[in-house]
Design brief:
The protein is mainly beta and 152 residues long. The protein has one domain (39-150): Immunoglobulin-like, CATH 2.60.40. Helices cover 14% and strands 38% of the residues. The chain is built from one helix and eight strands, in the order αββββββββ. The strands form two sheets. The protein has a five-stranded antiparallel sheet with strand order 1-2-7-4-5, with no helix packed on it. Strands 6-3-8 form a three-stranded antiparallel sheet, with no helix packed on it. The termini are far apart.
């Protein structure tokens, strides 16, 4: 009789074990994700200089914010600057303390910058206007285009 109870106990355990493994199932799913390079640039719509006479200078700073998850570079070019009938002289920008004439050619002003993180990187770029005898009195406007690109 004791053997019979022992046999029944083992049989019950075997049945419970078989039922437990038969009720469960598991599987693994592999997720594949691609993160693309992301570049974004924010700047004010307008930079206004005070009126200047020939020989006078005004300096204004432009604040730009760049967001990037890759190494990046910042380029700048003037559109409509120095053309016939437009402002022809005296506009410069500073990069690392030196002043450079603003050009209609794309110029790299930030080279090999690291990813910015979610807060972005704010850049302060000073522009200097010096009044010139080449320009007739009046109001002038032109565009300055900033472009952020991946660094090679």
């Amino acid at each position: 009789m004791a053997r019979h109870f022992l046999f029944m106990g083992f049989l019950c355990l075997a049945v419970l074990f078989a039922l437990g493994t038969a009720v469960q199932a598991a599987n693994v799913v592999t997720f594949q994700v691609e993160v693309l390079p992301g570049l974004r640039l924010s700047n004010p719509d307008m930079l206004i200089f005070v009126p200047v006479a020939p020989g006078q200078t005004d300096i204004q700073e432009l604040n730009l914010t760049v967001w990037s998850n890759i190494n990046w570079e910042l380029l700048v070019k003037a559109v409509g600057y120095g053309v016939e009938g437009g402002l022809r002289g005296g506009m410069e920008m500073s990069n690392s303390g030196a002043w450079y004439e603003l050009s209609e050619e794309s110029t790299v002003i930030q080279l090999g910058q690291p990813p910015t993180g979610p807060d972005g990187a704010t850049l302060r770029i000073p522009f200097r206007l010096t009044g010139s005898y080449e320009d007739a009195p009046g109001n002038y406007s032109f565009r300055v285009e900033f472009t952020v690109v991946p660094s090679l």
